[in-house]
């Protein structure tokens, strides 16, 4: 009986030590930098419902510089209020690159809001947040979020934390 208890305690201790090793390896990385659109992708037909103009775009490409560096390809849905210029964006992105020196792929979902100039259709500002949903390679298991802000033609800026 005593040997069984000693084995059980040793096994539990080993599990706790391994779990502690994984926690100790996790790093909370603060990231800041810029996002520059490289390609506007392909946008579908516009739909107008009352004052709301909606459309979807696929295959947009952007580069990330700073704490996150690499290239992202994203799809998004856009809604624009034709009276106020308020804009809502949401979508998903697949990113290939690095967070600091740790590299792999990241997937995330994002949403933002802002305002457009209705005479020129130019961005006045858009602010939002993205949450990491998956990762591979060195970024497998990455968690966290960043907020982004675009004023005028950009580039956009971002800041946040990623646990890798």
Q: Could you outline the blueprint of secondary structure elements for this entry?
A:
Blueprint: H1 2-25, E1 28-39, E2 42-43, E3 47-49, E4 52-66, E5 68-81, E6 86-99, E7 102-116, E8 123-137, E9 143-151, E10 156-163
Antiparallel strand pairs: 1-4, 1-10, 2-4, 3-4, 4-5, 5-6, 6-7, 7-8, 8-9, 9-10
Characterize the structure shown.
The structure is a single chain. This protein is mainly beta. It has a single domain, classed as SO1590-like (AOC barrel-like, Beta Barrel). 15% of the residues lie in helices and 65% in strands. It has 1 helix and 10 strands, in the order αββββββββββ. The chain has an 8-stranded antiparallel beta barrel with strand order 1-4-5-6-7-8-9-10. 15% of the residues are buried.
What is the count of helical runs?
1
Range of helix content: 10-25%
**What global shape is seen?**
elongated
Uncertain runs are: 1-24
Number-wise, the strands total 10
Number of domains: 1
Whole-angstrom Rg: 21 Å
Query: Helix and strand string, N-terminal first?
Result: HEEEEEEEEEE
Mean pLDDT: 88
Please give the CATH class: Mainly Beta
Largest sheet: 8 strands, antiparallel, barrel
Distance from N terminus to C terminus (CA atoms, Å) equals 42 Å
Walk across the major sheet and give the strand order: 1-4-5-6-7-8-9-10
| Annotated CATH homologous superfamily | SO1590-like
Proportion of beta-strand residues:
over 45%
In CATH, the architecture is Beta Barrel
Find the CATH topology: AOC barrel-like
Broad structural category: mainly beta
